[in-house]
Structures are given as structure tokens and as C-alpha cells.
């Protein structure tokens, strides 16, 4: 029989737990990205992956709770790590098979059915590995504790080491592994780490015979579940639901002020994991001095109070203004971490005390592994449910600030329950008043916070609390000005100075193509760009893919400016991720137009990969055109050339055209085709006359000469260039650094790049024809005219 250990576990075991936590976070990040490419990078798909991950682990916790007494626990831990490593090696292959064989099955016109189908696929793909990951915690707890008891000090310390490892994984993976090792290859590295953990655990289990009886302990005759009261199971579950729900809410809150790159999103995850690791360490030191009931009661009460205070701190420090601190990327990220720490750390640290304290509150006669496994399973099941409810039900229904108040009340419930049954009525009354008062103050402060520029007549005309964040339409209708915003600071477009430019983005490729009939727009926004197709009478169908349902509702308010796009019978709007829509469809188009996207935002980089362009090429007709719009003001030189070379590696004929010739906000499109581009001036003239019977108000579209003057040159791929790929999404990780280091192609940098690079581009195989060849200007003449425009003071679009 297993006896209490005469000596503490070897220090290396904590390294094993640390490395296991590191590998677990690498898996989570890597698999979420790989599955995101299959399901689409939607908030629903991301939630499916997260919920599948947690459900698999919860099932593993339950199984581990039963199995830990049937075999040597540390050896069982090693076997579980081996299982994780083996399945991790197969996940990329399984995903490849699913994409090639079942991609069509994952699309359905009914959103609920589609969600269920994807959830089934997601859970099936990663369940074996996450189940095995879940086995490790109860095995660890069983090995570290004496028989018929739990050594909460050792278990909590090991849990802290595991969580610190997860923190390391959350930082190292996006900062280094994904862009250097590769997305799938990162999971292979994690598999190697899991195998190392397995080897070390099994080796230790064979060499520590003096401290452990290697035979498995006998299973208790009574039902171990009877020892776990409903009270503690409920508190453990509530703790999980509130904690992960809080992470979702904090992420949504910081999205209102951050530039929302992978790095800034990572700050929230990192601070959460750091706080939870500290919580576990604190419990490992306090459990013998303070009762579990006292720890849970005070942690829940103070956690609820500081949760509401954290919202007030956030509003006071940011005032919902764009977070722009630091002149370099390093300074900016340091300031971002300090802000998140000041807001998030204390409430999460306090609430993180609850789960390890609950472990110590339960009579562990059934064995530590059974107690820890079952309670943590309840915690993890509820965490999965809590994250989904907050993201898709509570925030959309109640709004962000009321959701924080609800989370504070839920976090407080264990305190008032334990104090009430203990007869501490004064504690209950005083704490209830404090929690409710602060929750109310935080809601009132949030609702009254200003989200519009001061000194203007701009008003919020309509607002949606979507799973993607705040979506609103603001404007001054009397001045014919409307703008579509996401999370306050990102503008999808407007009917002011950007109106002509947005229309132009839709018209240029349609005027260049000889005879477009079927058109696809990737991105809707205000609908001004896609609405340009409505006035082209020869176009027979207009498909639009938009990620955010509420944006479609918002676009309807721009009907007077987008030619009543959504009411046109030729238009079909698909709510989906652009990549997934293209993968699941076999339809081919004459023209595909990809709207402007913010390249430094998390996951946006996948819209500029070689793999994405290959999917688009396969959806074009033989003489089709693909237009990729790029804002120079959003990108640096190296990133632009990475995109252009990735684009040209897929499209053998790539040409560059201006969308806006302005030094402070230059915009171009890459137009790709399978054959050399031939533009007939007379054909363009006829199309202009047909499209704009009364004449085009946009001077850049008023004549064929004006349209042809937008041509810059042809881009040939540099054979040695570094490309942006799904496996190495370099753009997503380099672009935020360039952005914060002031390396964007704006103003002087833009003009210099035009002079030094763009004017040197050849006209290649692009050909211009006209009945009167004398009307065709040389490329050099076009460049002279373009430079004259870009260096004059900005006027409109």
C-alpha cells in the first residue's frame, strides 16, 4: 500500500509539470489556428475549438479520477503524456483529410446545424489528445499525496508550476514559435516535450521505490463520489464558469482600446495565467493556517469587489481612448502589460484561490486523484459553458458593463453561501451591500463613458453588442455623414471623405475586366465598395462574404449611399469566413475583390498567405481577375513586399493599380490573373458610359485616360523572397512591430518608396490598346502624373 512519503518529491518533477503546462498551451494555440483555417477564423469557430479543448480535458479529469487508483499514478501520468504526444503528431494529417474529404459537410444554410456539425468535428479531432492531457492532473495529485488524503501543499505547488509552464507557452508560442518554427511544427515540438515529460515521469516512478509503493492502491469499496458534496462541486463549477467568462469579458473590454494584434490579446492570457499560478502557490502556503472555508469565502467576496473596481480602473486609465502609449513596439507592449496587470491581476488572483482551496475542503478519504479529478472536471465543464454563455448570450443581451456586474454577483455567491450557513449574518449584509454598490457604480460609469469625439455633432445612430465586439453606426444624418465602427476606434468606412474611394475600390477591377458577369466581394463593411457593382448592368450575380452578421444589418443603414445593395435581387450575402467560404464552394467568378483589412490584427494575416491566394485562384474563371486592396498607410515596406511576392507566387501576372494617390494614406490594389492583362481603352470608355450615364463624379473614373493613369507597373516575384504562408504567418507577427516602431509607408516614407521602387517597376506583359494609339500615355508619363498628385496637399479621397 502507498504510504506517506518520507521525503519530498524530487525537484525535477516540478520541471516535468512546468514543461507539461508549456506543451499544453502550445497545443491549444497551434490547434486553434489549424482548425481555424478549416472552420474559418470566426468567433464561433474559435469558441468551438476552445470548448472542445476544455471538454476533452474535463472528460480526462473524470477518467483520471477513476483510473489513478488502478495503476501507479506517476507511471500513469507518463502514459498519458505519451498518448498526447502520439495523437499530436496525427492532428495535422487528420485536419488535411477532413479538409479534402469533408469540407462541404461542414457548411449548412442553417447556422445552428452548421455550428453543431463543426463542434462535432472539432471535438473529434482533438479529443484523444485533450482527454489524455486531462488524465495528467489527477495522476499528479494522487502521486503527490498520501493514501486516503490530499497533500494540498504539494498538489497546489505542482499546479502552480504547471500553470507557470502554460504562461511560458502562451508567451513563447506567438512571439517565436509560430512564425519561426511554424504552426503545425510548433505542435510537433510540443509533442517532443510531452514525450520528454513522459520519459522523466516513468524514470522517476521506477527510481523512487523507497518513497512510493509502486503497486497501485486499492480502490475504495464505497462510492468515492459520495465524499464530494454538492456544495463543493457547485463552488468548483461556479469558479470555472466565472473565471473563464471573466477572461472573455476582459478580452472584449480591452479590445475597445488596444490595436488588437496577437501580441495585445496575448497580454490578457498571460496575466490570467500568471495570476492563477500565484493563486495556487498562495494556497500551497496558506492551507495549514487558514481553513478552506475562510479562503473561499474571503477570496470570493474580495474577488467580486475587486472585479467591479477593475472596471472602474480601466475606465479611469483609458477613458475608452485608443491605447497609444510608447514610441516603439517594446515600450508599447510594456505599457500594455502594465495596464492589463493593474486591471486584471488582483481579481483573477483572488478568484483563482477558490479551486485549490476547494480541493482541500473535501474529505479526501477516496484519494487525492479522485477529489482533484472530479472537482476540476466540474470546474472545467463550467468554464467551457461560461465562456460560451458570456460570448454569445450574456454580452449580446446585457451589454459589456452589465455582464461584468453579473460576473461579480456570481463570483460573490460562494462567500454569502458559506457565511450564511456559518451564521455570519454581519459578514453577509456588509459584503452584499459592498458588492452590489460597486457593481452598480461600475455599470453606471461604463454606460456613461464617452465613445464619440468631443466637440462634434456626431451621434450613435444604432449599436449592436455582437460576439465580435461593439458594432455601431455613427454620424450626422443632416450632413449626409454616416460611419460604421467596430470597437469604437476601427472604422469600416464612411460616407464622408472616404465615399468616393470606397466606390472606386469596387469599380476599378470591374472596368478593367473585359466582361464581368459573376463577382465576389470578400468583406462588406458599409457596402459602398460592393455597391459599386450594382450600377454595372452586365453583372448577373454579386456574392458578398461578411464575417460579422451585425455588419450586414449596419450596411442596410447605408442604403442611400451603396445603391440599396442589399435590396438588389442579384446580391447574395454569406455570413462566413472568406477562406472557409471559398474552400466550401466550387463556384467560379470573373472578378474577386478583397477589401481592405487591418494587417496587424489577430488572424488577419491569413488573408494574405500563399495558401489563401491559391484557393482564390482556383475559384476564378480562366480569364478572371483577383483584386487585393492594400493600404500603404497600414503597412511597412518589408510587409508590403512579402504580400506582393506571396501574391505573385500564385498569380503569374500581377499588376499594381492606385486606389488613392495620397502620401498620407496611399492605397493600391494588386490585380492577379492567369494570363497577361490586356486593357482596351475604347472598351473602358464604353463601360464608363454604360455605368455612369450622366458622367462619373469621381475624377479618377471620369474617362479611360483617368483609369489607365492609375496603373503603376507589373510586379514579378523575387525568387528568394520570404513568403507569408499558413504554416508561417509571418505578416501577422511582424506587422504589429512595424506599426508600433513607426515604420509604415506614410508621407515621406511613402514618396521615397514610390520614387525608389514603384517607379522602377516594368510594364511587363500588361498591354493597353486603343483605336488611337496617340492617346496612350507612356508608363513614365503616368508616374510623373501620379507623383504630382501624391505630393500636393490632401483633398478628400
Summarize the structure.
By secondary structure, the chain is of the alpha/beta class.
Description:
This protein is an alpha/beta fold. The chain folds into three domains: 203 residues, Growth Hormone, Chain: A (Up-down Bundle), CATH 1.20.1250; 224 residues, Growth Hormone, Chain: A (Up-down Bundle); 291 residues, Rossmann fold, CATH 3.40.50. β10 and β11 form a beta hairpin. α7 packs antiparallel against α10 and α7 crosses α12. The chain is elongated and about 95 Å long. It starts with 11 loop residues before the first helix and ends in a 7-residue tail after the last helix.
Write the layout of secondary structure elements.
Elements: H1 12-39, H2 43-67, H3 73-102, H4 111-144, H5 152-180, H6 183-207, H7 230-254, H8 262-286, H9 292-318, H10 329-352, H11 354-361, H12 368-398, H13 400-421, H14 425-448, E1 459-466, E2 469-476, E3 481-486, E4 490-494, H15 499-512, E5 518-522, H16 528-531, E6 541-546, H17 549-556, E7 571-575, H18 578-584, E8 589-594, H19 610-618, E9 620-631, H20 637-650, E10 653-660, E11 667-673, E12 678-680, H21 681-691, H22 704-708, E13 711-715, H23 730-740, H24 748-756, E14 767-769, H25 779-790
Parallel strand pairs: 5-6, 5-8, 6-7, 8-9, 12-14
Antiparallel strand pairs: 1-2, 2-3, 3-4, 9-11, 10-11, 10-13
Helix pairs in contact: 1-2, 1-3, 1-4, 1-5, 1-6, 2-4, 2-12, 3-4, 3-6, 4-5, 4-12, 5-6, 5-8, 7-8, 7-10, 7-11, 7-12, 7-13, 8-10, 9-10, 9-11, 9-13, 9-14, 12-13, 13-14, 19-20
Amino acid at each position: 500500500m502507498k504510504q506517506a512519503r518520507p521525503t519530498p518529491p524530487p525537484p525535477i518533477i516540478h520541471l516535468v509539470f512546468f514543461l507539461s503546462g508549456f506543451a499544453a498551451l502550445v497545443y491549444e494555440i497551434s490547434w486553434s489556428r489549424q482548425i481555424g483555417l478549416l472552420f474559418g477564423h470566426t468567433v464561433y469557430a474559435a469558441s468551438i475549438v476552445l470548448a472542445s479543448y476544455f471538454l476533452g480535458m474535463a472528460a480526462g479529469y473524470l477518467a483520471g479520477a477513476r483510473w489513478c487508483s488502478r495503476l501507479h499514478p506517476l507511471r500513469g501520468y507518463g502514459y498519458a503524456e505519451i498518448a498526447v504526444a502520439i495523437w499530436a503528431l496525427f492532428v495535422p494529417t487528420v485536419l488535411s483529410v477532413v479538409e479534402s474529404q469533408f469540407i462541404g459537410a461542414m457548411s449548412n444554410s442553417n447556422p445552428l446545424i452548421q455550428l453543431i456539425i463543426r463542434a462535432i468535428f472539432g471535438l473529434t479531432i482533438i479529443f484523444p489528445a485533450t482527454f489524455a492531457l486531462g488524465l495528467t492532473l489527477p495522476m499528479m495529485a494522487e502521486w503527490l499525496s498520501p493514501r486516503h488524503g490530499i497533500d494540498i501543499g504539494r498538489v497546489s505547488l505542482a499546479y502552480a508550476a504547471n500553470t507557470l509552464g502554460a504562461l511560458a507557452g502562451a508567451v513563447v508560442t506567438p512571439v517565436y514559435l509560430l512564425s519561426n518554427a511554424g504552426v503545425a511544427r510548433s505542435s510537433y515540438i510540443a509533442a517532443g516535450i510531452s514525450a520528454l515529460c513522459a520519459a522523466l515521469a516513468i524514470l522517476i516512478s521506477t527510481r523512487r521505490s523507497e518513497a512510493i509503493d509502486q503497486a497501485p492502491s486499492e480502490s475504495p469499496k464505497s462510492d468515492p463520489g459520495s465524499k464530494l458534496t454538492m456544495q463543493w462541486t457547485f463552488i468548483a463549477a461556479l469558479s470555472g464558469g466565472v473565471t473563464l467568462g471573466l477572461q472573455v469579458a476582459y478580452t472584449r473590454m480591452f479590445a475597445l482600446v488596444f490595436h488588437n494584434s496577437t501580441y495585445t490579446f496575448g497580454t490578457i492570457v498571460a496575466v490570467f495565467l500568471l495570476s492563477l499560478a500565484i493563486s495556487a502557490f498562495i494556497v500551497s502556503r496558506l492551507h495549514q493556517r487558514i481553513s478552506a472555508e475562510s479562503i473561499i469565502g474571503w477570496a470570493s467576496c474580495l474577488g467580486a469587489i475587486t472585479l467591479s473596481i477593475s472596471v472602474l480602473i480601466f475606465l479611469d486609465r483609458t477613458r475608452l481612448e485608443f491605447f497609444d502609449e510608447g514610441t516603439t513596439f517594446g515600450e508599447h507592449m510594456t505599457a500594455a502589460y502594465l495596464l492589463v496587470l493593474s486591471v486584471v491581476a488582483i481579481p483573477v488572483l483572488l478568484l483563482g484561490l477558490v479551486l485549490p482551496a476547494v480541493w482541500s475542503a473535501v474529505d479526501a478519504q477516496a484519494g487525492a486523484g479522485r477529489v482533484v479529478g472530479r472537482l476540476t472536471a466540474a470546474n472545467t465543464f463550467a468554464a467551457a459553458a461560461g465562456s460560451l454563455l458570456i460570448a454569445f448570450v450574456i454580452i449580446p443581451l446585457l451589454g459589456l458593463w452589465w455582464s461584468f456586474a453579473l460576473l461579480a454577483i456570481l463570483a460573490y455567491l460562494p462567500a454569502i453561501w458559506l457565511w450564511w450557513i456559518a451564521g455570519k449574518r454581519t459578514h453577509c449584509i456588509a459584503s452584499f451591500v459592498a458588492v452590489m454598490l460597486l457593481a452598480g457604480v461600475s455599470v453606471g460609469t461604463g454606460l456613461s463613458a464617452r465613445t464619440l469625439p468631443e466637440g462634434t455633432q456626431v451621434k450613435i445612430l444604432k449599436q449592436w453588442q455582437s460576439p465580435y465586439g461593439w458594432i455601431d453606426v455613427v454620424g450626422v444624418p443632416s450632413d449626409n455623414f454616416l460611419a460604421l465602427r467596430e470597437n469604437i476606434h476601427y472604422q469600416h468606412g464612411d460616407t464622408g471623405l472616404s465615399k468616393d474611394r470606397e466606390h472606386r475600390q469596387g469599380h476599378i477591377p470591374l472596368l478593367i475586366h473585359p466582361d464581368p458577369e459573376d463577382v465576389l466581394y470578400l468583406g462588406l463593411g458599409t457596402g459602398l465598395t460592393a455597391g459599386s457593382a450594382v450600377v454595372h448592368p452586365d453583372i448577373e450575380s454579386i456574392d458578398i462574404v461578411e464575417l460579422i452578421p451585425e455588419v450586414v444589418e449596419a450596411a442596410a443603414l447605408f442604403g442611400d449611399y451603396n445603391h440599396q445593395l442589399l435590396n438588389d435581387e442579384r446580391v447574395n450575402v454569406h455570413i462566413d469566413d472568406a477562406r472557409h467560404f471559398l474552400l466550401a464552394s466550387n463556384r467560379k467568378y470573373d472578378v474577386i475583390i478583397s477589401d481592405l483589412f487591418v494587417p496587424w490584427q489577430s488572424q488577419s494575416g491569413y488573408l494574405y498567405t500563399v495558401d489563401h491566394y491559391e484557393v482564390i485562384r482556383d475559384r476564378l474563371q480562366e480569364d478572371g481577375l483577383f483584386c487585393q486592396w492594400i493600404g500603404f498607410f497600414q503597412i511597412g515596406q518589408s510587409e508590403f513586399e512579402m504580400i506582393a511576392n506571396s501574391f505573385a507566387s500564385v498569380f503569374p501576372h500581377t499588376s499594381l493599380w492606385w486606389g488613392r494617390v495620397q502620401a498620407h494614406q496611399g492605397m493600391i490594389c494588386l490585380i492577379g490573373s492567369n494570363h497577361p492583362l490586356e486593357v482596351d481603352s475604347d472598351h473602358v470608355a464604353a463601360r464608363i458610359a454604360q455605368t455612369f450615364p450622366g458622367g462619373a463624379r469621381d475624377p479618377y473614373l471620369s474617362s479611360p485616360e483617368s483609369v489607365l493613369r492609375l496603373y503603376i507597373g507589373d510586379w514579378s516575384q523575387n525568387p528568394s523572397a520570404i513568403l507569408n504562408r499558413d504554416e508561417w504567418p509571418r505578416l501577422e507577427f511582424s506587422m504589429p512591430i512595424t506599426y508600433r516602431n513607426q515604420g509604415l509607408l506614410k508621407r515621406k516614407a511613402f514618396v521615397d518608396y514610390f520614387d525608389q521602387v514603384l517607379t522602377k517597376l516594368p510594364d511587363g506583359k500588361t498591354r493597353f490598346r486603343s483605336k488611337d494609339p496617340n492617346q496612350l500615355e507612356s508608363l513614365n508619363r503616368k508616374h510623373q502624373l501620379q507623383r504630382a498628385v501624391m505630393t500636393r496637399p490632401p483633398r478628400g479621397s
